[in-house]
Each structure stands twice: as C-alpha cells, then as structure tokens.
Amino acid sequence: MTELHLSEDQIQIRDLVRRVAREKVAPRAQEIDRTAEYPHDMFDMIRDLGLFALPFPEDYGGTASMLSACVAVEELARVCYNTAYLLVVQWVPIGAILAGGSPEQKARWLPGLASGELRGALSLTEPQSGSDVAGIKTRAVRDGDDFLLSGSKIWCTNAGMADFVLVAAKTGDAESRGKINLFIVEKGMKGFEVGPKEDKMGARGVPSHAIFLDNCRVPASAMLGDEATGFRVAMAALNDSRPIIGARGVGLAQGALDHTIEFVKGRHAFGQTVSDFQGVRWMLADMEVQIEASRNLVYQAAKAVDAGVSGKPLARLAAIAKCHSTDTAMRVATDAVQLFGASGISNEFPINRYFRDAKVLQIIEGTNQIQRNIISRGLLD
Fold it and tell me: At what angle are helices 40-49 and 81-100 packed, to 10 degrees?
C-alpha cells in the first residue's frame, strides 16, 4: 500500500494534489492536448499552491523531499501529463543551479524559480547528439570577460516560455569529447533565438523548440559554477531527479487503468458486462501488478535521494525506477487502448492521449536503452 511509504505530511500533499487534479486539472486535460497550447492557467494554479519549491530546501519554501515531489507528480500525471510536466521543467533548472551554481547565481535565480515568478529551461540535445552529451557541437569561446556561444539545439522544452535557458556548450577543443559547461542565457540576448515549436505526438501542452546561438555574448559569470566542476555537479543533480520521471510513468499508468476500469464496467458484449470476462480481468490484474511494482521502485529511489544516497548506487536505483515505470506506462496504455476497442483510437476518448504520452516517457530524460546501459554497467563493472 502507498501509505506504507509516506509520512503524514506526504499523505496530506498527496490528498491535496489529488483533489485539485480531479477538480481543476482533469477537465482541462483533453483541451490542452488537443490545442497543444501552453496551459497558463495550470501554471498559475501550481504556483498558487506553492508546488514549484516542493523538493527543494525549506529556505526556498520546499519540503526537502524527493518523495513528496514524486507523489505530487504522480497525482497530476494521473489526469494530465502536461500539467505534471510543468513541475518537471521548472525543477530541472532549479536543481542544476542549486547543485552547481555560485552563491550569486543562486541568489539571483532560485527565489523566482521556486515561487514561479521566473521560468527556466535546460538545453542539451543537438541534431547529432541526444543521449551522447559529450558529442555536442555548440561552442563557448572565451573573449575577455565574456564567452561567445555559437551552435544550435533541438527539443528544448519550455524554451518559448523561459526567462532563461541553461545551455550546454563546449569550452574546450572543438573535437574533444570533454570540457562542457552550462551557461545561463537570458531571453532577449543578442544572438540568441528561439525557433518555432515542434508539433509533437505527445507531451503536446509544454512546447519544445529549437534554439540558435550566433556569437551570443554572455558574461563569464553566466557559467554555472566553475569551469572545472560546474557541469559535472549539475549533471549529478539531474541524475538525482530521475525518480520524478519515473513518477510520471506511475501516474500515467494509473490514470490509464482508472479510465479502463470505468470503461469496461460500463460496456456490454455477448449478454454480459465486459468487466466480467475472465480474460479482461486478468489484463486488469496484470496492469495493477506492474503499476504497484513501479510505484514501489520509484518511491524506493526517491527515498534514497532523501537519505543522501549518491553516485553509482543512486544511479542504479534511479535507472531501474525510470526504466520499469515508463515501460509499464507504455504497456498499460497499450492494453488499455486494446480494451477500449475502436473507441481507443478515437480522439473523443482520453485513452488515446495516455498512449501517446507514454511513448514520450520511454525516450526523454535518457532513453530506456540508456537506462539499461546504466543498470548493466552496475552489474558488470
């Protein structure tokens, strides 16, 4: 049972977010997906609830608990992947700056990000390199007290709304596979352009964009942390947040199962309710087994973060949780569409949306093939 993992405070967070998700978010979910327009009302709601600071230190209004963050994401993703995504895209730059930023950077950016007054984004992926971060081509060339950034990025989620983007660029030799740093590139800087949004299969409500940098001049103080350790520390922080991606998978799978149960209990065939067929009941049971297994894996990884576990042990737990939960989301959504029959491929029914969003989860934040590499490396090294 979920309650075995959660404190009283976390149960209160879960119940609050669950109620808001059902009353405020669920009625908007289909429209957000259909129009692919950024849900400003959902962002405002999350900000007013104070959820943006949730996993971070109490100094920023948070609970200092990754598990609390996972609970909130799970409940939102259960009814609307895109609204849950609003939390995640805000948490990524907060986590990176909190871990790798200078005191001045933290003072300038973190209060506004935690309160929702500011919005950020992270840009790593390029046309020729996704999971292979070391293969990026974007350059940062020193010019006095500044750096000149040149290159192009793709799939920068939230770039269209962000007040700044954390851009990964090579500060070393152009042909090397090392010496990468993150730079805080603010909206409106000369030489920085955000391209049109992608027309995505899933995760449609939080747009992703290409970004272009043409000798974009940023001060050296815009580098996250120091040149030697800033990128490594920030990337370690992103690894710490991977349980949140798993929580999205759990929530999405649970939501797909919720819709399926409601549908089969109200559907009749061959003189009986569809939910009375043994084959259907077995499919539902298999969905529940996998969801509960995923939830336990995600909560275990989140509790490890809260306990201060780091390095390879955490990387293994987080990779297992992300891989299993997002594969489960895809499997459950696929079976759900099957049980909906022809209705499953109609845009009039929400299960179509769960199927498309689940596929996205197997790819983003480190493909599940990359997660399997991490897991197997822990077994063999």
Answer: 60
In which domain, by residue range, is 250 found?
241-380
Digit-coded pLDDT (tens) for 296-314:
999 999 999 999 998 899 9
Spatial CA neighbour of 332 closest among 360, 351, 318: 351
Q: How many CA atoms lie within 13 A of 280 on its CB side?
A: 22
Tell me if residue 117 is catalytic: no
Where does the pLDDT of residue 129 fall: very low under 50, low under 70, confident under 90, or very high at 90 and above? Answer: confident
Q: Which residue has the tokens 């000369």?
A: 190
Q: From the candidates 74, 75, 126, 365, give the one annotated as an active-site residue.
A: 365
**Tokens at 22, concatenated:** 């059902």
Asked whether residue 360 falls in the same domain as residue 281, the answer is: yes
Exposed, middle or buried: residue 232 (CB in 10 Å: 0-12, 13-18, 19+)? middle
232 falls within a domain:
no
pLDDT tens-digit readout, 237-258: 777 788 999 999 999 999 999 9
The pLDDT tens digits of the residues spanning 338-371 come to: 999 999 999 889 999 999 999 999 998 889 999 9
